[in-house]
Structure formats: structure tokens, C-alpha cells
Amino acid sequence: MADSRLTEKTPADAGQQNIGSSVTRTDERNANADQIPSHEVTSDLRSVLVTSVLNLEKLDTDLYRGKHHWVPRTQRLFGGQIVGQALVAAAKSVSENVFAHSLHCYFVRAGDPKVPVLYQVDRTRDGRSFSVRSVKAIQHGQPILICQASFHMQQPSPLQHQFSMPTVPPPEDLLTVEELIQQYLSNPNLAENAKQGLNKLLADEVPIEIKPVNPPDFSRRVAMEPKKLFWVRARGHIGEGNMKLHCCVAAYVSDYSFLGTALLPYPNHRAQFSASLDHAMWFHSTFRADHWMLYECESPWAGGSRGLVQGQLWRQDGVLAASCAQEGVLRVRALTESKL
């Protein structure tokens, strides 16, 4: 299965910039001018993931506050938001010549969408090649997430290999989730409860775009392999050059619809409760999170009311950009025949 071709390098491998809180509106730029290096204040960063979700407010040295944008219907904070914001806070404390190569997080409490999150950074270590940061996300005086992030100075290496990217249709040949839902809603025979559920999905203001490779059938429930493939990108324009920022956006993206992969073989069960326990990510190559990337997700194991999922984010040119892994709680109930 392995493909030993060399990883491609891009011009962005050289001269990447540090992460900043670049925004689109002049008043917001002025309000954060003390936090943004002058060479990073641009007018082309229009993605809400940059202007809002990942734009932290500096309260003190290594102490930041983050607000919320999209809250899932569970009314618990989206784990990808907390991971992405924690990586933003960590990235603000390292030098410009090192870039995130891995993060490891534990979710220890559910997030409260009614209050902001504080991010406290501990500068664990600064070496010649690696810098390590510990970040604690805090609400109501207690940690909701503990994150370790490591940053690495890019170095050449003769050891370069990767697996092959799956062969799938390009994103321009596929429909977005919203377009697929509109197709189902146009069916005059669609049950009323199904219409209500699909309209709720349309109302979600998720700041990323999704194009499933194998679209789900919202009306028929069939057992599937615990694998899924979908193209994903941030809504709006972010721009090139700031690799720290693209890693933070990818961390946000990586948690979306990830744990649900473990439920695909069980169409006759519904999750009564699901929550991420931990999340890990490794960054391999430069990429742009506002360009389409293929997210390959699979669940190699489930048991004990837990599920393990693994994922790879591929650039459209076939280069492996990042790898992810997560374990979560999955407590399910069997559906009765009338609810199938």
C-alpha cells in the first residue's frame, strides 16, 4: 500500500511568516495593532475563521481570550474551535522561524458556549531546533482542554516518503453538503420530520465548506464501512505565506465530522452521547487551508463505549499535509422499527 515517492516542496517552504490576528475591518485592525506585526496587517484575510474564530484577544503576557462563532446543536463548544484557538495561543509565543509539527490535546470538561475561553500558555522549552508549549483552556476557573504543541525549525532531510493519496473525483465535480440537502428537500415525497432535520442542518453557520466524495443518503439507512472521504476548505480567503495560521485553521477543520466515522457501520443505532476525549495532529508539509483538501477518515476500532478514528489531510496535488487521530466516547441506543 505504501508509496515511496518524495514529498513535493513548494515555494511556501521558505519565508513563512508568524501568526497574527489579521482582520478585514479597519477598526478591528487598529484595535489589535499592538498584537500584529506591521508586515502582517493585510486586507485580504476575509475568512471568518481568521477574523473571528481564531482571532484571540491578548489580556496579558501568554494569556488570551477567545470567543465563539459556530456552536453545534449539542450546545457544547466545538472541540475543533478549542484546539485551533489553543494552537493560536501557543504559536504567538514562539519565534518566527519555527512552525507547528504536532499537537496533543485532552478534552477534560465540556465547553460552555455562554462564556469566553481563557488560554494560558506555559513556555515549556525552547531548544535549538524545537520549542514546546503547554496551553490550558479555562472556563469558570477550571481547565476544559490541556494541549501540548511542539514547533520545529524546518530542516532538509534525505528521508522523505508517504502513502499514495486515494483516487477520487476532484472537488469541482462534486456537490457541497448544502447543495445535496437542497436536492433532498426538493423531493415532494420527503417526510415532514426529515424536512425539519435537513432545514436545521442548512441553518448551521459552519465556517468551512464540505464536498462529500460518497454523499450520504439521508432517506435510507444502510451499514457502511467505517470510512469516509470528503473535500474540505475554510470559507473565504486566507492567503498564502502564514503557515502558522493555516495550521491553526486545519486544527479547527480536523475535528469536524471526525468521530462520527465510527458510527457508519451501525445505521440502527443513534448516539445518545458523544464527546471527544483526546485529539492529536501532525503537520507534514505546507498547505493552504482555504484551498480544497481531501480528508480521509477511518475508524479502525470501536468498543467499550469508545471509538478510535484516524485521518489524513491531502493537498489536491497529492501531497500529504497532515495526519490526525482521536478517541471519543460513543454511547448509543438502538432504534425501534418505527424510527428507522
Defining key terms:
acetoacetyl-CoA hydrolase activity; twelve-stranded antiparallel sheet; HotDog_dom_sf; disordered N terminus; 6 helices; 17% helix; serine esterase; two-stranded antiparallel sheet; 340 residues; hydrolase; alpha+beta
What is the end-to-end distance? 38 Å
Q: Major β-sheet, in short?
A: 12 strands, antiparallel
| Sheet/helix structural class | alpha+beta
Assembly status: single chain
Proportion of residues in helical segments: 10-25%
Mean pLDDT over the residues: 84
Estimate the strand proportion.
25-35%
Q: Which spans of ≥5 residues are poorly predicted at pLDDT below 50?
A: 1-18, 20-45
The tally of beta strands, per DSSP, is 14
Tell me, briefly, the overall form: globular
The radius of gyration computed from the alpha-carbon positions, rounded to a whole number of angstroms, is: 20 Å
Give the topology string: H per helix, E per strand: EHHEEHEEEEEHHEEHEEEE
Strands of the widest sheet, in order across it, are 2-3-5-6-7-4-11-14-13-12-10-9
- Provide a count of the helices: 6
Organism: Megalops atlanticus (Tarpon)
EC number: 3.1.2.1, 3.1.2.11, 3.1.2.2, 3.1.2.27
Keywords: Fatty acid metabolism, Hydrolase, Lipid metabolism, Peroxisome, Peroxisome biogenesis, Serine esterase
Domain Acyl-CoA thioesterase-like C-terminal: 212-329
Describe the SSE topology.
Elements: E1 2-3, H1 26-31, H2 48-53, E2 57-60, E3 63-66, H3 79-91, E4 99-107, E5 117-126, E6 130-139, E7 142-152, E8 162-163, H4 177-185, H5 192-203, E9 208-212, E10 227-234, H6 243-254, E11 269-283, E12 293-303, E13 306-315, E14 320-334
Antiparallel strand pairs: 1-8, 2-3, 3-5, 4-7, 4-11, 5-6, 6-7, 9-10, 10-12, 11-14, 12-13, 13-14
Helix pairs in contact: 3-6, 4-5
Keywords: Fatty acid metabolism, Hydrolase, Lipid metabolism, Peroxisome, Peroxisome biogenesis, Serine esterase
InterPro entries: ACOT8-like_C, Acyl-CoA_hotdog, Acyl_CoA_thio, HotDog_dom_sf, TesB_ACOT8-like_N
Family: Belongs to the C/M/P thioester hydrolase family.
